[in-house]
Each structure stands twice: as C-alpha cells, then as structure tokens.
Write a structure and sequence with these properties.
InterPro entries: Calcineurin-like_PHP, Metallo-depent_PP-like, MPP_PAP, PAPs-like, PAPs_C, PAPs_N, Purple_acid_Pase-like_N. It comes from Perilla frutescens var. hirtella (Perilla citriodora). GO terms for molecular function: acid phosphatase activity; metal ion binding. Belongs to the metallophosphoesterase superfamily. Purple acid phosphatase family. Residues 58-149 form the Purple acid phosphatase N-terminal domain. A hairpin with a 6-residue loop joins strand 11 and strand 12 (143-148). The model is unreliable at 1-25 (pLDDT under 50). By secondary structure, the chain is of the alpha+beta class. The protein has a nine-stranded mixed β-sheet, with no helix packed on it. The chain has helices at 3-10, 171-182, 208-221, 248-253, 292-300, 332-344; strands at 20-22, 28-30, 59-65, 73-79, 87-92, 99-102, 104-106, 109-110, 113-114, 117-123, 131-136, 143-148, 159-164, 189-192, 226-228, 269-273, 276-280, 311-315, 349-352, 358-361, 364-365, 379-380, 386-390, 411-415, 419-425, 430-437, 447-452. It starts with a helix and ends in a 13-residue tail after the last strand. The longest helix is centred in the middle third of the chain and has 14 residues, at 208-221. Bound molecules: 2-acetamido-2-deoxy-beta-D-glucopyranose (NAG) (4 copies) and fe (ii) ion.
Length: 465
C-alpha cells in the first residue's frame, strides 16, 4: 500500500482543528474540518454486501412498524432465485408457543433489471415491550433474527430513537452505522429521513445497488425498525428509459403502515411509538392546499393526544430551515404551506435530511409574512419546533461545506461532518438530543440539547404523576 493510499484511507481521522467561530449573530459554525469531503462506495466484493450462504437464501431482511400503536411489525426480505416461503415463524422470548404469519411476494422490473422475489409479511397483535425471535426462509436456508416491540404508548414512557439520513453505501456510510450500533446510548428504532441507497447515481439507476444496500443495512434493520421517509433519491423517475412510475423501487421494497393512519399513500403517514407521535411527510409529493397530503396532514394534527403521546415529531426529507448553500430554500414552499401548523400544534422537533451536513435551529418561526408587510425574518417563538438537519449519513456525494454567511440568527449550530443523532425521551417533559460525528469516540457528542416538551412545559402546574 503506497503512502498516498494510506493517507487517503486515514485522512478522515486527520482533524484539522476544533475551534468554533462565533458569528456576530450568536449561532455556532463549527470549524471542525476533515480532509475527505467525498467518499467512495464500498466495492461489490465488500464484506457488508456478502450473500447469505445457500440456494435462494433470504437476504436484505428488514423490519418496520406495521400498525399505528406499535404492536405490529412488517418483515420484508428478498429471495434471489425463486419465490420462497412467504411465512414468518415467530415466538416471544420466554414462550414455547411458535406462531406463523403468512405474507405475499412482489417483483418489479426497472429498465433491464428484474428484481428478486420481494417478500412482505405483517405480524399484528404482538405484546408490547417484548422480545420476539423470528425466522424467514425454510430448511437449510432458514435465518433467525429478533426484535423488541415498544412499550404501550403513554405519557412517561422512555424511548430512544436513532436518527440517520442520506446514508448511501460508502465507507463513511458504514462508519455511520457502526457508530450508531456502538453508541452506548442504545437506539431502539431509527427515524430515517430519506435518501436510502443512491442506486440512482449509477447508470440506468442500476437497481442491483438497491440490493447491495439492502444487504449492507440488514445487520441493523433486521433487528430494529427503521421508520421510512422518502427522499429525492427514491423518485427514480426516468422517462427517457421508460421508467415513469415515481418511487417504484422504493415502494416495492419498503412498505409503510400508511393505511393505519388513514393516509392514501405510503409516502406520508403517522405512527405512535411509546411516548412519541411521529408524522412522516413527503417532500416530493404534492403538498399544496387541497392536495391529498395537505388534507391528511391538517386533519392529522388535531388528532394527536399529547397525554398519550407527548412528543410530536415530524420527519421530512427536504429541510424547511437550512443555512447551507447547497439545496438552499428547496424546502421553502413546504415551509410556507405547513409551518403555521407546526407552530399551532406545538410540534417538538422536525427532522430532515437532504443537505449532507448537520444543523440545528433555534426555536423560531416565520409565519407573519404576508407578502406586503415586510415581516420576513424568522423570530424567536416558544411554540415553534427545533429544526434539525441530519442528512450526514455519508453517501457518495460527500459533505456540503458551503454555508451562507453570516450565519443566520435562526441557526444555532452547524457543522459539515458525517454522523448520526439520538433522541432520547425520558418522560413527558424531558428529552435529550445528541449528535455524534463519525470521527469521535462512540460516546462523544458533537452537539446536544435538552428538549422541554412544547405541550407539557406550559402545563406543568397540572402535571402530577
Ligand atoms: C463495515 O463496518 C463493519 C463494522 O465495523 C466492519 O466489520 C466491516 O469490515 C466494514 N466494512 C467495510 C467495507 O468497511
Ligand atoms: C442493462 O443494460 C446495460 C447497458 O446496456 C448493461 O450494461 C447491463 O449489463 C444490462 N443489464 C442486464 C441485467 O441485462
Ligand atoms: C388521551 O389519552 C389519555 C391517555 O391514554 C386518555 O386517558 C384520554 O382519554 C385521551 N383523550 C382523548 C380526548 O381521547
Ligand atoms: C423527567 O426527566 C428529567 C430528566 O431526566 C428529570 O430531571 C425530571 O425530574 C423528570 N420528571 C419527572 C416528573 O420525573
Ligand atoms: Fe436528498
């Protein structure tokens, strides 16, 4: 291995400095700079892409929440050679009774690619807060995994979410997943803010890169649910090669429990999980007034019972507030449509991806502007959510480093590093957020914040448990 190669391999560890430049407005722009902004995809023969042994062995096993309350799980997997058994065998830890649930198989074609046999099986009516083992495939290619169901929704139920976005399948992507896995604060489910495989970056949107991504993330997503948000890299709309159905690969491979929240599209939906109510929006579906997504979203917010689920979390791909130059203002039209709803219903936090960096906002809103009154500067607003951009999973497009200057007042902290987040709910009033950059030790936080619940902070006098 040449010297250059060694330097190239370890350049990510050469941190230049750790000084913070305080902008005149008060937010922090970190000057933590690393040399490799761009990262390359892991080669096809990498360990993370290895096929499970045996003819037609199930691969790309992944789970997500399968119902509204957390007692359902959707188990998905792909068999490459022929249709496999659609059944999932499962049993609770400490139980002798094994049950079987049956699913279904889909396939799709994309230009000249034909998918494997994509199996989906929804298991319902599980016990809360219970470890289950499950088996997919049969005979000598049966594979066993496990998951833990969340506790029943309730006001003071602690729960820990991981946050990952724009992951891709580079060496940095692998570092992000590894750091999440080895973080001593154990995440129990991932809120995934969109842009999964980046298969569309390959010629003809080479869908074999969806398969490699599925094998790469299996080591985590087979054991804990990832809650999916669709990003622009899921659109896969290429009329020039006859591919005119947006989100085709994503929607065949990854299901969401959208019907349980009366949504009409898998791309926007909501779930309850422990003490959180999570609303997932689609930045790349119509969201203007009268559209299905608008209608659903505005009906959804009044339904949230903050006693049952105090923490109201919204996920979307394109951030409403980002002070990076790349993708600047792409989320603006959705902000104009939806921000007043987020403030009125006291959403605690909005997580987004898309911008390949990290940023956290102050609690601000910009909802007074009416085109003629000139009130177009975000102002401090105690009812507003914190906006967190966490599109720093590590995909092949690399980091974005160009920021608008000076740092706007609404931006509390920004840094162009790869990493992941942890949102750790303690009780109805307190949650702790930490952001972990990949260059640091597993427990180190690059940025952190105590969240005081927006609904309960004003009701503390009524609060007695
Ligand atoms: C990915 O990370 C895992 C866990 O740290 C490691 O075992 C594996 O070798 C890595 N693979 C590549 C291609 O970096
Ligand atoms: C699809 O077409 C591309 C370009 O012609 C070619 O490189 C690739 O091998 C083809 N793949 C299959 C599965 O036929
Ligand atoms: C809200 O949830 C709490 C706790 O589950 C329940 O006691 C209460 O009846 C619910 N309120 C409404 C309006 O449904
Ligand atoms: C909620 O959690 C916070 C942080 O752990 C703690 O300081 C506070 O006392 C807790 N509230 C109650 C009522 O237990
Ligand atoms: Fe994106």
């Amino acid at each position: 291995m040449g010297v250059e190669l060694i330097i190239a391999r370890y350049a990510h560890l050469l941190v230049v400095s750790l000084i913070f430049i305080r902008s005149c407005e008060g937010g922090l722009t970190s000057s933590y700079v690393r040399k490799n902004g761009l990262s390359s995809d892991m080669p096809l023969d990498s360990d993370v892409f290895r096929l499970p042994p045996g003819y037609n062995a199930p691969q790309q096993v992944h789970i997500t929440q399968g119902d509204r309350e957390g007692r359902g799980v959707i188990v998905s997997w792909i068999t490459p050679d022929e249709e496999g058994s659609t059944s999932v065998l499962y049993w609770a830890e400490n139980s002798q009774i094994k049950k079987t649930e049956w699913g279904s198989v889909v396939r799709y074609k994309y230009y000249n690619y034909s998918s494997g046999y994509i199996h989906h099986c929804t298991i319902n009516n599980l016990e809360y807060d219970t470890k289950y083992y499950y088996v997919v495939g049969s005979g000598n290619v049966a594979r066993e995994f496990w998951f833990v169901t969340p506790p029943q929704p309730g006001p003071d139920v602690p729960y820990t979410f991981g946050l990952i976005g724009d992951l891709g399948q580079t060496f940095d992507s692998n570092r992000t997943v590894t750091h999440y896995e080895l973080n001593p604060v154990k995440g129990q489910a991932i809120l995934y803010v969109g842009d999964l495989s980046y298969a569309d970056s390959y010629p003809l949107h080479d869908n074999t890169r969806w398969d490699t991504w599925g094998r790469f993330v299996e080591r985590n997503v087979a054991y804990q649910p990832w809650i999916w948000t669709a990003g622009n890299h899921e659109i896969d709309f290429v009329p020039e090669i006859g591919e005119t159905i947006p989100f085709k690969p994503f929607m065949h491979r990854f299901l969401t429990p959208y019907k349980a929240s009366k949504s009409t599209s898998p791309l926007w939906y909501s779930i309850k999980r422990a003490s959180a109510y999570i609303i997932v929006l689609s930045s790349y579906s119509a969201y203007g007034k009268y559209t299905p997504q608008y209608k659903w979203f505005t009906n959804e917010l009044p339904k949230v019972n903050r006693t049952e689920t105090p923490w109201l979390i919204v996920l979307m791909h394109s951030p409403m507030y980002s002070s990076y130059i790349h993708h600047y203002m792409e989320g603006e039209t959705m902000r104009v449509m939806y921000e007043e709803w987020l403030v009125q219903y006291k959403v605690d936090v909005v997580f987004a991806g898309h911008v390949h960096a990290y940023e956290r906002s102050e609690r601000i809103s910009n909802i007074e502007y009416n085109v003629v009154n000139g009130l177009c500067t975000p102002i401090n607003d105690e009812s507003a959510p914190v906006y967190i951009t966490i599109g720093d999973g590590g995909n092949q497009e690399g980091l974005v480093t160009d920021m608008t200057q000076p740092q706007p007042r609404y931006s509390a902290y920004r840094e162009a590093s790869f990493g992941h987040g942890i949102f750790d709910i303690k009780n109805r009033t307190h949650a702790y957020f930490g952001w972990h950059r990949n260059q640091d030790g597993f427990a180190v936080e690059g940025d952190s914040l105590w969240f005081l619940n927006r609904y309960w902070k004003t009701k503390e006098e009524k609060y007695s448990v």
